[in-house]
């Protein structure tokens, strides 16, 4: 069953504090977080979070399309390396 | 003809024979699976040409193909698990801001302060942009692949520079 709308999105409180502190400092550092269950909020757009996957921190650069999703969705806990083949990375 | 392994890019693998008339199943590793059919010359690990004629798509990322001159199932058995390669120079030119994974791998990474961080070992994309993994054998870092984090890329010298603030994933 989906979460009731009246509750609003779930987010761990410490995450908002960390994001605000980083934004205020003006630095572009990676914010290390362990809260994979937290919802991505609009005020996180443009920040880079390091989401813990149980092994290491996966950098997640937040864009508008990611709002409403959970952080854990972008940091898989089981990695399939796959093949490079003709795949390209966009900078 | 023998080709150095570095010049070869693996684009697929012959997984198994299919049917009794010399057909095989080919699994594609390319970004768009059907692109494997557009490469005219597919080679094996030693650089020997494998003359494949592609047929229909069998399942997602898998295609049926016929090896020219091979007409029985017994003959196709020897091709099982043979990886298919193309020459790096046969890949189309990448657009601006796009880099082939094979070009980035093995690049030496330095921090802006000049520290040697190791080599690029993998390139990932988990849905939040491309990431490069830099490892010196002991420690590994994941770095977002964007101009802020990776301001300098020199593919000819195989060198990249990484902004110190973006080193993440230190074990």
Helix and strand layout, with pairings?
The complex is a heterodimer of chains A (91) and B (171).
Chain A: H1 13-25, E1 31-33, E2 48-52, E3 57-61, E4 88-90
Parallel strand pairs in A: 1-2
Antiparallel strand pairs in A: 2-3
Chain B: E1 8-18, E2 23-28, E3 52-59, E4 62-67, H1 73-76, E5 83-87, E6 98-100, H2 101-104, E7 108-111, E8 116-125, E9 130-135, E10 140-144, E11 152-154, E12 159-162
Parallel strand pairs in B: 7-12
Antiparallel strand pairs in B: 1-2, 1-5, 2-4, 3-4, 7-8, 8-9, 9-10, 11-12
Strand count of chain B: 12
Query: Could you name the ranges of chain A where pLDDT drops below 50 across 5 or more consecutive residues?
Result: none
Measured as a percent range, the helix fraction of chain A is 10-25%
Biggest β-sheet strands, sense, barrel of chain A:
3 strands, mixed
The greatest inter-chain interface is formed by: A-B, 32 and 49 residues
Secondary-structure-based class of chain A equals: alpha+beta
The biggest sheet of chain B amounts to: 6 strands, mixed
Q: Biggest sheet of chain A, strands in spatial order?
A: 1-2-3
SSE succession of chain A: HEEEE
* Oligomeric grouping of the chains: heterodimer
Q: So what's the overall shape of chain A?
A: globular
Following the backbone from N to C, one meets helices and strands of chain B in this order, namely EEEEHEEHEEEEEE
How far apart are the first and last residues' alpha carbons of chain A, in Å? 39 Å
| N-C termini distance of chain B | 44 Å
Helix count, DSSP H or I runs of 4 or more residues of chain B: 2
> Could you tell me the mean pLDDT of chain B?
87
Query: What fold name goes in the CATH topology slot of the domain at 28-77 in chain A?
Result: 30s Ribosomal Protein S19, Chain A
The proportion of strand residues of chain A reads 15-25%
Task: Name the CATH superfamily assignment of the domain at 28-77 in chain A.
Answer: Ribosomal protein S19/S15
Spatial order of strands in the largest sheet of chain B: 10-9-8-7-12-11
């Amino acid at each position: 069953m989906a979460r009731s709308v009246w509750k609003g999105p779930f987010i761990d409180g410490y995450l908002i504090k960390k994001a605000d502190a980083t934004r205020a400092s003006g630095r572009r550092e990676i914010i290390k977080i362990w809260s994979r269950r937290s919802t991505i909020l609009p005020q996180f757009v443009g920040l880079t979070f390091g989401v813990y996957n149980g092994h290491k921190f996966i950098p997640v650069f937040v864009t508008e399309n990611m709002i409403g999703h959970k952080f854990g969705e972008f940091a898989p806990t089981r990695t399939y390396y796959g093949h490079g083949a003709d795949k390209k990375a966009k900078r | 003809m023998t080709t150095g392994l570095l010049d070869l890019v693996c684009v697929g693998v012959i997984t198994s024979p299919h049917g009794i008339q010399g057909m095989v199943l080919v699994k594609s590793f390319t970004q768009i699976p059907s692109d494997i059919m557009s490469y005219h010359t597919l080679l094996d690990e030693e650089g020997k040409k494998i003359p494949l004629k592609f047929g229909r798509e069998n399942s997602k990322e898998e295609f049926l193909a016929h090896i020219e001159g091979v007409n029985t199932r017994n003959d196709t058995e020897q091709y099982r698990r043979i990886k298919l390669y193309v020459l790096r120079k046969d890949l189309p030119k990448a657009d601006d801001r796009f880099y082939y994974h094979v070009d980035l791998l093995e690049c030496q990474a330095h921090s802006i302060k000049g520290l040697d961080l190791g080599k690029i070992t993998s390139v990932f994309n988990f849905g939040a942009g491309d990431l490069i993994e830099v490892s010196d054998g002991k420690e590994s870092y994941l770095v977002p692949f964007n101009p802020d984090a990776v301001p300098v890329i020199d593919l000819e010298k195989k060198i990249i520079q990484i902004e110190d603030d973006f080193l993440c994933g230190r074990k």
